[in-house]
Amino acid sequence: MPEYTSIKEILDVYGTFTGLTSGTSMLPLLHQGKDNIIIVKPIGRLKKYDVAVYVTDYGKYIMHRVVEVHDDHYIITGDNLLAREYVTDDMICGKLVGFYKNGKHYVDCEKSKIYKAYSRIWVALRPVRPAVIFVRRCVNFAKRFPSRAVRKIKKILKADK
Question: 37: how many CB neighbours lie within 10 A of its CB?
Answer without folding.
Answer: 22
